[in-house]
Design goal:
Elements lengths: L3 E5 L3 H15 L6 E5 L48 H5 L9 H14 L6 E2 L2 E9 L4 E8 L5 E6 L1 E4 L6 E2 L13 E4 L13 E5 L3 H12 L4 E6 L12 E5 L1 E5 L2 E4 L4 E3 L2 E4 L3 E2 L22 E2 L3 E2 L5 E3 L9 H15 L8 H16 L4 H16 L9 H17 L33 H4 L5
Parallel strand pairs: 1-2, 1-7, 2-3, 7-20, 9-16, 10-11, 10-16, 11-12
Antiparallel strand pairs: 4-5, 5-6, 8-17, 13-14, 14-15, 18-19
Helix pairs in contact: 1-5, 5-7, 7-8
């Protein structure tokens, strides 16, 4: 068994890994020395909201992409920790689509219950990771942000849990350099009220574009135009939101689109996705992938094919989030503890190819939901993660897809049942489209 293990990042993936190790330790297992490096001053990863954009107080790129009025865009029942349920944490049944602060409270609650803060070195950025073939160890160079000091430590295994929604993909269009209004990536979006009365152009056709278009209109934007590259999202948008083909150029404040139409806009938000960026990892260890449901070169979606002692968590495109991170963390833990052996490199490569072939056969969201659910089941069958009704979560996700097509402003008003406890969520006291207060106190308050 490894004697020293580094976990990089204390967001949902890193905390899942720490929880996995700590639970094994509490059950009597011999656990190696665990050190988690987190460059922010607190845990939570993207859920650790900050008003900052651009650079943080230390001159590093801001990690967070979270904005003030974000609510869960999927049923909470599909991300519920089987070992720490919503009922246990809140002591009451809560609606299925919580706002940001409520989900952060839930994530932090399990971490606090398991006392994993003891393993985390906050305000400590990882600057470089390399591997020495002779010693069989990883060299991890870190910098403490308060004093700028660097040091290098050796580890037997490294688990990368930094996420992949922090380095924005920023395209350019003709005329951007002369546009008189605000141009920003969704990574830097913080408050929908910035766009009250504005004519907003949103470029993109995935979750960020969908949600930022809704948020800005809900809080008072005059109009929102969504520009798509391949296909429209085609939801039943409320009045004031519509979709057009891809932006071709901007002439002053006039946006011109591929279908020959044009309209004047005051601001532009680029919801154009993120890059998997691991500039702190040496070339031969660095994951390079698009945002897909099964990245290449990761056995079980976790173990780096070139050196399985390096593990990556949460690198997939995601329907499942927290529960998938748990499955990966428990599997990685059991490899580290010597409970799960890994096959030969050839067998691992063949297994990766089989999963990627299955992915290529997926014909739409329902197939993709089943694909990722099957992936989570495949991991959980070999570990002691508490059982829960995965098939119910599949059904919930498919119902959710239907609900969004029926009412993009009303799908968050639906309720779902827990796959862990069976609890049926109450309906929130105020329809989401009318609820302008996203505080935890209001959300958990009067539900009459």
């Amino acid at each position: 068994m490894a004697s020293r293990v580094a976990v990089i990042g204390a967001g949902p993936c890193g905390l899942a890994q720490l929880d996995a190790f700590e639970q094994a330790r509490q059950q009597g297992a011999e656990v190696p020395q665990i050190t988690c490096f987190e460059k922010q001053s607190d845990w939570g990863g993207l859920w650790n909201y900050t008003w900052r954009t651009g650079l943080d107080e230390h001159g590093d790129p801001v990690h967070g992409s979270m904005y003030r009025y974000l609510w869960s865009n999927g049923p909470k029942e599909c991300l519920e920790f089987a070992d720490y349920t919503f009922d246990e944490h809140f002591g009451q049944a809560i609606p299925s689509f919580p706002p940001r602060a409520v989900l952060y409270d839930y994530i932090a609650g399990r971490a606090e219950a398991n006392n994993v803060r003891q393993y985390i070195q906050f305000d400590t950025a990882v600057r470089w990771i390399s591997y020495d073939e002779k010693t069989g160890k990883f060299a991890v160079t870190v910098q403490t942000m308060q004093d700028g000091q660097t040091r290098t430590e050796e580890f037997d295994k490294v688990i990368v849990a930094t996420g992949h929604f922090s380095t924005p993909n920023v395209p350019s269009f003709e005329g951007f350099d002369r546009f008189p209004g605000r141009i920003m990536h969704s990574h830097d979006f913080r408050d929908a009220q910035e766009f009250v009365g504005k004519r907003l152009l949103v470029i993109g056709s995935s979750y960020s574009a969908e949600d930022i278009a809704l948020q800005t209109k809900k809080y008072g934007a005059q109009s929102v135009t969504i520009s798509y590259r391949t296909a429209p999202m085609d939801f039943p948008w409320p009045a004031g939101i519509d979709e057009v083909p891809l932006l071709s150029k901007v002439d002053g404040s006039t946006a011109h689109f591929a279908d020959g139409t044009a309209r004047d806009v005051d601001a532009i938000v680029l919801c154009t996705g993120y890059q998997h960026s691991f500039g702190f990892i040496s070339d031969e260890l660095r994951l390079r992938t698009a945002n897909v449901l099964y990245p290449d070169n990761l056995y079980k979606g976790v173990f780096w094919l070139g050196n399985p002692d390096l593990m990556y968590l949460g690198m997939q495109d995601q329907y499942y989030t927290f529960t998938m991170f748990d499955a990966q963390a428990w599997y990685a833990r059991d490899y580290v503890l010597g409970r799960i052996p890994l096959p030969s490199r050839e067998e691992m490569a063949a297994d990766i190819a089989r999963w990627r072939d299955r992915l290529a056969e997926c014909a739409g969201p329902f197939d993709e939901i089943d694909f990722q659910a099957n992936y989570v089941v495949d991991l959980n069958k070999d570990v002691d993660y508490p059982s829960y009704d995965v098939d119910l979560t599949r059904a919930h996700f498919k119902d959710w897809e239907h609900d969004k097509k029926a009412s993009i402003t009303g799908y968050r008003d639906r309720s779902f049942s827990s796959p862990c406890t069976g609890t049926i969520a109450p309906v929130h006291h105020t329809p989401w489209w009318q609820e302008l207060d996203d505080t935890e106190a209001t959300f958990l308050g009067d539900k009459t």
